[in-house]
Amino acid sequence: MFAFVIGIGGGSAAGKTAVAEQLRGLLEPLPVDVINQDRYFRKSDELPRYEAPASGRSWPDHNHPDSFDFSRLKQDVAAARNGGQAVIIVEGILVLHDPELRELMDLKLFVDAASDERIVRRIRRNLAWGYDLDEICDFYLDSVRYRHEEFCEPTRSEADIVIPGGHDERPKRDELLAQVAQRVQSALGATRMSERAGLK
Predict the structure, then answer these.
(1) Are 112 and 13 a contacting pair, CB within 8 Å?
(2) Residue 195 has what pLDDT?
């Protein structure tokens, strides 16, 4: 039986990982595997560069589709579909960008959070990782916000459901994710019934 594959896209620090983990909990006791797109970043010397139009500074472009090894990601998702798990969750800023990867998904979600909330989360997270505040802010202003509008935000239109990721939107997010979990469970139940019927 093929696993049910869920794609979760959205901007940097929108709450994708938290949504994936919440959904994993809602789907218990089903076996769920989470594949994070960050595991497919190319090596530092293979990353494209971004020249900031205003400052002229050059940055490694972590928010461009060419920054990821989509070929390996698609191979791993395709293999995971038949790997014994009931559900596969694929999450990352550009998982809804590639048409062939989207074809492997049974359900596509986009986590939406306001830009001011995302930058606050990003600053806190990157400070905890040991980055300098000025570097975090410069990289966001020079690169991240432009690449978000260019590559990430357009993938919202590919989503089946937009999940609110804001701090004050938790009740609506909980409601929608509960509906998603029910949808997945129903789909898997229908698949099992169809398989049993085929064995008769």
Answers:
(1) no
(2) 58
